[in-house]
Amino acid sequence: MLIFLLKRLAQAIPLLLLVIICTFLLVHAAPGGPFTSERSVPPQVLAALNAQYNLDLPIWQQIGLYIGHLLQWDFGPSFKFPGRSVTEMISTGFPLSAELSLYALLFAVILGLPAGILAAYKANTGLDYGPMTVAMLGICLPSFVLGPLLTLSFGIGLGWLPVTGWGESSGDKILPAITLGASYAAYLARIMRGSLIEVLGQDFIRTARAKGVSEFAVLWRHALRPALPPVISFLGPAVAGLLAGSFVVETLFQIPGLGRFFIQAAFNRDYTMVLGTTIFYAALIFGCNILADLILVWLDPRQKLHD
Amino acid sequence: MPLLTVNNLTTAFHTRDGVVTAVNNLSFSVRAGEVLGIVGESGSGKSVCCYSLLGLLPSPPAKIMGGTALFNGQDLLALSQAELRQLRGSKIGMVFQDPMTSLNPSMRIIDQVAEPLRIHFKLDKNTARERAILALEEVGVVDARQRAYAYPHEFSGGMRQRAMIAMALIAEPVLLIADEPTTALDVTLQAQILDLISALQKKRNLAVILISHDLAVVAKMANAIVVMKDGELVETGPTAEILARPQNAYTQALIAAMPRGAKLSATPVNHSAAEGDSPLLLEVKNIYTRFIRYGGWLVRRKTSELVAVNNLSFSVSAGEVVGIVGESGSGKSTLGRSILRLIQPDSGQVLFAGQDVLRMTPRELKNLRPQIQMIFQDPYASLDPRQTVFDILAEPLLLHGLAEGETLGQEVQTLMDEVGLARSAVRKYPHEFSGGQRQRIAIGRALALKPKLIVADEPVSALDVTIQKQILQLLQHLSEKYQLAIVFISHDLSVVRKMCDRVIVMHKGEKVEEGSTEEIFAAPKHPYTIALLSAALQ
């Protein structure tokens, strides 16, 4: 167990290094730079700026220097917001994004899993078709459509919930969380349904019934655990996706989260900011996947912890 | 008074294609302490009948259309699911065919065995677990106290079935329904499990309904037999009477297909290809195949090694049928695949018509493929579900450029005639055929390229006895007609005896005995062969 964890963490190091180098080369290959603007800057000033941020060095030296700083937990200064460091911006933006993602995830799990279980148990009846139709809609509707729709109906039309902000007025966290979590709830419901239907058709479910196990216990004790692996396999990357993909929702609802910083940084050619957020997200994705793997092994004793 | 009396049970499945009657007007009864055998092929309704009694059939599509089933004075068919649940596992225990799939893979054995006690007697976890350990000890699980905490995949096939029996009997039911309890097991294990059921039955004075397609199993165990075909009862009576004086033609056919000591004194094999007068077709020399598992991080290193085939040699003449016998895990399938180089052996030679198959270039190998073909055990799993019969049969011909256009259609039709398939079925897909017909398709596919050698890996194990017989006859006929050599891999001695000129017995990757079929069956020398024979024929 501990060895497995250490191995996986060790595997993450070369991968992270690769992510750093690729991102570094990509942002530098994009036309323009952090100090390009409409007003022409005197060449001496530009040269001085470049020198200050080491942009005049060969690219390999820049990468080396960057990684050196990274090892000291220093993501570097922001190019676009002088006086603010990337570390500081991530640490202010991430908690907001994380909170939003957590609520979205809770919404997805609490709505999606029971809907999928119900649909599987009542397969090919109204209780299956109803939720599954809604789920299909949820998958098809992108958040930039669903968000405004929810805002219009619950925020402006009915006036029940505030439509912007984060933690400023009561209930302003509900609509963003639902907007972000809806499609995940839909996916979860469909995966849960498919997987559970398959498990319910297996021989050992018949064995359980032959023992006199009640229908609820068949579902809860015998079927659910073998049906969960596909759900967990989806959830691992999904959690990372929620964190990284929150920028649309953050923009819609005016939330100063990390997702918005990320996108703005890319437009601004804010090299250090792009790199910092990318590495941060990459590390998160690794973390979520390792966690999902651990849960998978716990769920299915036939899986062994190796590789 | 009988413990269970079933009267005119009729069960039907309501499908889109109409109503299919699976069990029709079936009546039988079982007394306490009696073993009733229900025999029939798959699809004969024998399992459906028992599942009907316990309300275990999914409804819809299944529906019980009529009849009564009096168990201790209660009509099972009139009970609600909740009332049936009270009986299932407490008064009536069930053992299923495949203990691997019938046990929950993610639950510890001990908890699965203890579950009936938890449900029916509301015992607390620890008490139930204690009782489960005792039950596992009773069915012969060694070191039950430690091993009980394992998961099903950590048990061997025989141990899993023992656990299953412990689970079925832990709440001390009065009736045990065993649905093909030994079909998924090797012969030596089959005998052990049947002995176990028999011993427990006597000890507890249990009534047992034993469902099997294998008349030999039922004949060994049962006091009385019910023979079923197409959902109906064909014949019933005391075992001795049915075996000695079968009235119905179908029962007679079943008995004729049964491997028994008496039948073995006859010589069923026609030695058309006596050794010596045919040229040597295949020579296998010192084949050594092992499986290595790799593990480790960054650097791959060997973690374990299994020698599947250990220095094995044999030869096959043109037109000869050579049987390779052994239990599962003996390496016989690996040997078959090594001959075709589907697996690369670590050392040794496979000389086919003088050329070493193992050292051929990819191009040479491709030219060889038409001459050596393979038939697999499960025709359903080894045929592409999205290809029609025409596609399946035509593909090898096209691949090797042997036919195209009109001649292709003719070739395919000839093949279908050859293996006994209706020409009209050419556009159908594999799932539309029965198991026997599917194996015919697979044989046709193998035959398409007019091979000189076919490696048949358990070609009839997935089929019913009467279908088995037809397929074996087809293979025999083809072997004689085309001077086709067959390497026939099987765990089933009676089948091998019918088919083969020569037999090789394998055990743990090694050849333990080789000889003509008559010699091996009349005078086996190696202790393992003797054990195998006595397990199969008792």
Which labels suit this protein?
heterodimer; A: 307 residues; 13 helices; 0% strand; B: 538 residues; alpha/beta; 6-stranded mixed beta sheet; 22 helices
* Largest sheet report of chain A: none
- Rounded to the nearest angstrom, the distance between the terminal CA atoms of chain A is 12 Å
Largest interface: A-B, 27 and 30 residues
Which structural class best describes the helix and strand composition of chain A? mainly alpha
Largest sheet of chain B: 6 strands, mixed
Describe the structure.
The complex is a heterodimer of chains A (about 300) and B (about 550). In chain A, about 75% of the residues lie in helices and about 0% in strands. Chain A is built from 13 helices and no strands. In chain A, helix 7 crosses helix 9. The model of chain A has no long low-confidence stretch (mean pLDDT about 85). Chain A is mainly α and about 300 residues long. By secondary structure, chain B is of the alpha/beta class. Chain B is about 40% helix and about 25% strand. Chain B has 22 helices and 20 strands. In chain B, the strands form 4 sheets. Chain B has a 6-stranded mixed beta sheet with strand order 6-7-8-3-9-10, sandwiched between helices. In chain B, strands 16-17-18-13-19-20 form a 6-stranded mixed beta sheet, sandwiched between helices. In chain B, strands 2-1-4-5 form a 4-stranded antiparallel beta sheet. In chain B, helix 4 crosses helix 5, helix 5 crosses helix 7 and helix 7 packs parallel to helix 8. Classes of the chains: A mainly alpha (about 300), B alpha/beta (about 550).
